[in-house]
Design goal:
This protein has helices at residues 33-39, 61-75; strands at residues 2-8, 14-19, 49-56. By secondary structure, it is of the alpha+beta class. The protein has one domain. Strands 2-1-3 form a three-stranded antiparallel sheet, covered by helices on one side. The longest helix is centred in the last third of the chain and has 15 residues, at 61-75. It starts with a strand and ends in a 17-residue tail after the last helix. The relative contact order is 0.27.
Length: 92
């Protein structure tokens, strides 16, 4: 199963990503680790929420990438004030 997901952190910032591994419970994306570590460096414990935004068994890699980018832009995950996605660059 191919999916596009949204992770919400305790500060309400988000990360949108895609997964083709069918391991929905163990993969939490590759958001900007420096920003995430900085935002939570003093926390000893916190919870994140993972939500599946879109799924398909037949999507091509191009379709999956397009859906991921759509949700990144739609939700503002590439705005540093709202999320941890670095791409696509805000305003492009």
């Amino acid at each position: 199963m191919k999916v596009v997901y949204k992770i919400t952190y305790p500060n309400d910032k988000i990360y949108v990503g895609q997964d083709t591994t069918d391991s929905l419970m163990t993969y939490f994306g590759s958001g900007n680790h420096d920003y995430i570590n900085n935002d939570f460096k003093d926390l000893k414990s916190f919870c994140i929420h993972k939500e599946i935004l879109w799924e398909s068994e037949t999507a091509t890699p191009h379709e999956l990438k397009d859906k991921e980018e759509y949700y990144i832009r739609e939700l503002g995950a590439n705005d540093p004030n709202k999320g941890y996605n670095l791409r696509p660059k805000l305003g492009t």
